[in-house]
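Dissemination and training. As part of the outreach component of the grant, students in the summer workshop were shown how a complex can be specified as a set of sequence lines and then modelled as a single object. The example used during the hands-on session is reproduced here so that future cohorts can follow it. Participants entered these lines:
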Amino acid sequence: MRNIFVRTWVEPRDIISPHWDGIFLFLRKDIEMAAELQNEYEQSELYRVRHSTAHVMAQAVLALFPEAKFAIGPAIQDGFYYDFDLPRPLTSDDLDLIEDKMKEIIKGRHVFTREVISAEQARHVFKNQPYKLELIDGLEQGGMDEDGNPIQEKPEISLYKSDTFVDLCRGPHVENMGKINPKAVKLMSVAGAYWRGDENRQMLQRIYGTAWLDPKDLKDYIWKLEEAKKRDHRRLGKDLDLYSVNDEVGAGLVLWHPKLGLMRKLAEHFCDEEHLKAGYDFVYSPHIGKASLWETSGHLGFYKENMYSPISVEGQDYFIKPMNCPFHVHIYKSGLKSYKDLPLRYAENGTVYRYERSGVLHGMMRVRGFTQDDAHHFCLPEQMPDEIDFVLDFSLHILRSFGFKEFKAYLSTKPEKSVGEPERWRDAEAALEEALKRAELPYEVDAGGGAFYGPKIDLKIKDAIGREWQLSTIQFDFNLPERFGLTYVGDDGQPHRPYMIHRALLGSLERFFGILIEHYAGAFPVWLSPTQATIIPIADRHNDYAHTIAKELQQYGLRISVDDRADRMNAKIRDAQKQKIPYMLIVGDAEMENHQVSLRLRSGDNPGAMALEAFREMALEAIANHTA
RNA sequence: GCCGCCGUAGCUCAGCUGGCAGAGCAACCGCCUUGUAAGUGGUAGGUCAUGGGUUCGAAUCCCAUCGGCGGCUCCA
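and obtained this result:
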């Protein structure tokens, strides 16, 4: 349970903009407060209400299923859950019944009482509850908490009783059920969950519920869920005709439709230019490589589960690439490198394929084939701190260009099992941390959380409704230079091993665009919008003028469409709104006469008539600056 | 992969305990010539995911497969 709250460090509702057009309200919150906030939550009345409501739910379930076996039932971010082992699958009707029963129980205003008992007594109380018995064993050994994670001290075993229900529980709870407002409680869903999260163990039924102090908070919460649903990239992907995933093509394989294709092109073009300016070299690599390549790289040893079956060609096995690194390494190796050549930065938007279990696929966010904006840096040991500074700055620059404003970094350090010399690890970790400090980025250290081949920085952004997404990753790699025997010739004429850094900024383009869609709720900034302005003639006699000014604007590189259908202006505005086109240019008799357009924004604002040139300048400026 | 739910027109969804496949929107063809979020009439559109089974008869019941959704586990 302890990790549930680290995902967001501010309640999403704190940062939702009241102006609902994807404006990101910038809130500076000290990241060190994360742990404190979690702690605060666990001591709050709300936390006790939720935890207590979980007990009430368990009592209700027991009333309906006397043979129910109980696992655990904690409070979580927006509510609570409880895992049960039940004789049959629950239906949504069951949820209604359970909820009704809960409200009945709550009305009794029963008191919660705590009692400390011995393990022996506890075993007697829960003799028919195998999951509780297992928990008691864990507690008694002092080795495990309710998730099976090791804990330091040996806790005392306590019971909580309320009405007819007794549970093994460390609390805390509300004094009595009068503190629970039945109108602020709602059961949300049923889902499968493995006992202790272990897929080799019993699958239980988890009921998710939400509970609040005030019914108004419940309403807000449900409203928020609906808002999140509205900006779901799968929903918008269909509505705006952005992408599809087709049965016959295969699950987890994304088809980019023209509008999103254009946006990707624009994004790639922008990034290419920035990479060029920043001193990157562009490389390309094939989609498959011989088995021996993946042997050498170690992927067949460490990554095989995520790789597709080999293709046999003339007796040789080839594998579809799950990563680009081995190819880039070979580009480095293709010629002798002098210390004067370094640093080298090889960039490629490389499309990789990874086997993902069907249950984890999710729109564009989690797919089986995706394109990484990948790059590998090779540098001298003494260049490494600057190289890290550079890549971190560059990363932030790119992310800011797409409109993200709030970042958080995670520094993952050396795990127990690792390759590479300890002093290289120390240098690299220090360089990463120094760079984070210089960049004045809030960060958390995940001690021992690095990959076996090197430490890393992950960058997360926060989207318009407060969710965190990991985009950039900057990873050291002590493994591949060893395995492939990479060297450069130093000023002493001797071969030396270079440092290698692997980085992706947007991560996967599929996932990145999924995130962008949700962040902007489909209302993309003008520079990315497939259609930047649509011209809406009021009547047929304005069509020629509409086409004339469209051509004029197109000459400045603006993406313009003309809605010359025989529909009413209102219908055209409605369609343009639904397509979230940034600018609507309404033209009628008055505009035609004065070489004007009447501007309407997708926000609903209506700046009104202006000279065509004035509009053009305004639009070009917004595009150049990547604003709204 | 596992647990539960689901798959009907381009989209959103009706279609009850088996008895001739429906609506709204979109599309297409007209009429209307319009001033800031839906003018109006008509036409066309479906192997009811796929394959098998039960039945006189299956969109409906059963089985399998493929996909989707919510979770678990994992992750870009």
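Chain A has three domains: 44-223, 238-285+321-520, 533-624. Students were then asked to discuss how this feature might be tested experimentally.
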